[in-house]
Amino acid sequence: MKLLLKIAFLLFVLYVLVLLGRENRGTVDFTLPPLLPSKITLPSAIMYYVFFAVGVVTGSILTAGMSKGEGKGGGAGKSGK
User: CA distances (Å), 16 to each of 11, 35, 47, 63, in order?
Assistant: First the structure.
């Protein structure tokens, strides 16, 4: 059941991404002076995809290598036996 909920959530997110790509065709200026010397102008839907991808990669890196119980309790009270 948990897997079906995850699949349904993933399909919903992909549906929202498709809607964003179809409906938002205006351009957006993005500036980040410490990292990017010049501004970037892209369609807003593409900018949303980029931010979504950055979030997915960040979440994947933060959860990579965790054992099943490590993410929930922190593992501070476990003995090294």
Answer: 9, 29, 14, 24
**Sequence letter at residue 35:** L
Residue 2 domain flag: no
How confident is the model over 23-59, as pLDDT tens digits? 878 898 989 888 889 998 988 888 888 888 888 899 8
The span from the CA of 46 to the CA of 25, in Å, is 9
Distance CA 44, CA 28 (A): 5
Residue 24 contacts residue 48 (beta carbons within 8 Å): yes
Q: What residues make up the domain containing 24? A: 14-57
